[in-house]
Structures are given as structure tokens and as C-alpha cells.
Amino acid sequence: YGDTAVDSRGLLRGLGVPGMAGLAGCTGGGGSNIELPPGDARWITGTTSGAQSLNPLEVSDEATNNRLGLLYDPGSVTADGLEFDGRMLADYEIAADAQSATYVLRDDLEWGAGYGQLTADDYVAFVEEIVFGGPEGKTGTVGYSQTSSYVLGGEPLEIENLGKLEFRVNLPQSRGFWLVEDPVRTAFVVPEALIEKYKPFVEREVNGEQANVVTQIGADPAVAEAGLTGTLGPFEVESWTKGQKLVVSKNEDYYLADADVGGGAYEGAPQVAEYTYQVFDERSTAYSALR
Question: Which range among 8-22, 58-72, 206-220 has the greatest average pLDDT?
Fold first, then answer.
């Protein structure tokens, strides 16, 4: 809660959840130094905010963002001030004229559910098809809520594939601090092949109601059951009750666990075997459960 002496970033660093440490919002207090007991430690977070979806394309609140951060890493996370630590993006650089930025993906990232390696094609498809609604610009039909972040001065940015693991974002105007505000660097994407399954982009029925493309993709078993995780995030879903409880367990195939990032700071990450979000109607109920 907001009055705790343990801030969320420090907490997640201590638990060895590196992606979440960069995404989580600060809730007050100073830094934390979490010491875990030996063995397979479990962590339970009591909260009054429930996530309504595990769809990485449908993040509209911090509660959902926090849950997704346990399952999928972003491209990079903010470290200190204007500095960034790479995650799925091994490198990114803005051009001297500040009108383009080039990104290089890691070569050891695998989707789950049989979708293979994460490549530049996935990022290009995400921006062109999901963010901008494809060649016909069907943004309303697609229903992605963050499209405005990819538009500068009324003009959309453009993305181009430079190779299997490299892509470039071209900006309609010079932005010297683009990497600070860059939505591509922190976006949750999905496989190109998954997007292709839902073409042509039209509203279709989901649970008896007409639904946009984002909702259609969210109902796909690979998304709804968090089967896309693969090697991309620190945890895998064990169970989830919408708006109530999420239980995840350590992903033994997490790419960052044996990566040369931060001098081996994330070796063996995450440091907990199980992480639970439990939603309570009121704080008093949560406090009773804690006691």
C-alpha cells in the first residue's frame, strides 16, 4: 500500500523480478533490501485492485500492467533518470539527427504456444497492424488504446525491418529525447503469426458479443491462458481468477536467468518459486488475512 516503507521497485528487485522492477510505479517510502529465506520462497501480495485481463494488448490500468510484468518482459526498463537497461532489446540508439531510432533484439527469445522465436517481424507487425490498424487504418476495429503515443505532431511514426533481429523507427519530426517517451521500447507485443490469424480485421463475436480485434486476440487460448510466455518472462501462470487471484510460478527457461546483464545481477532470477496476487475488497480484510 501507499504508506508502506517498502517501495515497489525495490521490492521487486529484492525478489529477483527485473522486468517488473522497472515497470512498477513507486508507491512511497525509501528503498528496500529484501532477504529471502532459503528454499523455495513464496511471495503473496495483497491488493484491492484486480486485473480484468492477461491480454498484453489491453493494458489500461496499473493492476493489469503489474500482472503482465510477471509474465512478459518489455524491451527495456528505466534505470536511473534518463538511463535504460536492456531486456528483450539488446541495443537501441537514436540517430544523430534525432529522426530515427534503431533497435536490436536479443537472439535467445522464444514465444510459447509454438510461435517460435521473437523477431523484428513481430515488432513490425505489432506497430503496423495493431497500433495503426493495417494498411486500411482500421484503428477503431482493432481497438488498441495506445495509438496516440505513436503519433507525433499529427503524423504517425513509421517502422521498417532491417533484418531478423533489427528494426528502425522513423519519426515524422526530430525528437532528441525520443527514447525517454518511446512507446516501442516498453510495449508488450504479440507474435506476427497470431495477428495474422485474425485477418481480415473485422468485428467478430466473442462470448456472444461483437468484439474488436484486440478483444478477439485476448480470447485466443494462447493469450487468455498466458501460453505465450515461453522464455520471455520470469513467471508462468499456475492459476488465474479474473479480478480476484493470480498465482504464477518460476519460469525455469527465463532468458535473463543466465544472461550477461548487469554483471550477472539476475543470475537465477526470479528468486521466488511462486508469486501470488490476492485481491481483497477492503484494506481491513487484507490486514486480517495478513494477521
Answer: 206-220
Q: How far apart are CA 198 and CA 177, in angstroms?
A: 35
Provide the 8-state DSSP code for 110.
B
3-state secondary structure 2-37: CCCCCCHHHHHHHCCCHHHHHHCCCCCCCCCCCCCC
Give backbone dihedrals phi and psi of 255, rounded to 5 degrees, phi first: -60, -30
pLDDT of residue 4: 38
Q: Which residues contact 75 (CB under 8 A, 6 or more apart)?
A: 86, 87, 88, 89, 92, 103, 184, 185, 186, 187
3-class SS string, 232-262 = CCCEEEEEEECCCEEEEEECCCCHHHHCCCC
Decide: helix, strand or coil at residue 187: coil
| Dist CA 54 CA 277 (whole Å) | 13
| Residue 117 grid coordinates | 522465436
Of 224, 110, 128, nearest in space to 167 by CA: 128
Q: What confidence tens digit (pLDDT) does each residue in 73-110 have?
A: 999 888 776 778 888 999 989 999 999 999 999 999 99
- What one-letter code names the amino acid at 244? Q
- CB distance 73 to 233 below 8 Å: yes
State what percent of residues in the chain have pLDDT above 90: 59
- 101: its cell numbers: 531510432
Which stretch of DSSP H or E encloses residue 139? helix 139-142
d(CA 193, CA 228): 12
Q: For residue 142, how far is the Cα from the chain centroid?
A: 19
β-pair partners for 210:
205
Cis-peptide into 200, omega within 30 deg: yes
